# Entry
Amino acid sequence: MYWMNDLHVFTTQSAKKVFEKLGIDGHDYCMSDHWKFFYDTDPSMGLPAINRHELAQPYNHDNFEVMANNFSKYFSSVQNQDVDFFYCSFTSKIAHVFRHCEKKIHCQLSFRFEDNHPVPPTEIERLRSLLVSMVEFGQLHISANNRYDEMYFYHFTGITPTYAPATGTYMTESYAPQSDRILIGPGRHYPTGTAIMNKLAEYLQQSCALPVQTISQAYPKGFSWKALSQHKAIIVIPYTVSSGAFFEYLSMGIPMFFPSPRLLAEWHTKHFLLVERKYALERMDRSTVKPVVNCYPDPNNDLDFESVLFWLKFCDWYQWDGVTTFDSIEELAHLLRTFDPQEKSTRLLAQSQRDLQNAVRSWKALVGKGA
# Structure
């Protein structure tokens, strides 16, 4: 039986799907602001010890220690004998909240371990020391649902997380193209990414006569997964290195086209495209804390092309069979005219199933359960 608090609705659904395969039930107190995507009522209602506003604040050791003490008192006062472990993912600071409870903690990294806010270097050091000490004590196990965070955590701690891939197989829609229309996504982006997507759509429409629109242009009032599944393909211009939306496209089998690592690195160093690549949502030229494994380029240098290129090869989509990459807009136009939609969709669906099987296998080893 698990106890789950999380700030990201995608990682919650992904983990629950895997635990369901293993026959593990639990208590889900998802604290994401986007809970309405998957729940009829707010799952965090009635949880007095912590709230989403406090949990979402930038990490401060002293503040989280107060939360940890309050949660421990609450947890010991309720009927919790059935809880075998705590689960959290986005972000690792949530593990701090559980530290005084005498239960195993599984933290599955889905974002950089420091936080998703700018955090002072002294607080990053305190969080890193806490996580390492909890791992060494045997209370905490660190996994990662993507290769980027697996390598990133190893780089800064010397600890190799268990790789347990994320899965979007909770999706109920599947690829069923109704026209030749092609989308550019995702549906939300930062200003630079939005500008690139709009220019790309304009070029492909006017110069290549291809029926291409951004998701925002096609669905200004919002979209459904069924609507997306009816398009021929999605050109993805990322804003981060791992995203739930991309796993959901994968699980539906929608053919996807991504910029190649070199093109993505070029766009990032020139335009700061991958705003959510790291915890500080602004350009940086170096990490604010020193790594433990000092044999890789700095993952937080947004200005050096080779550093960015090295780390981008760990992005989710470059691990997936069936994804098509392009080195130029001209190559993209050619690929869009000549690809086989069903062949690509079949390969992506097979990849999604492999990821689910690998995730189930990894979690079975971690929690000692079998379906």
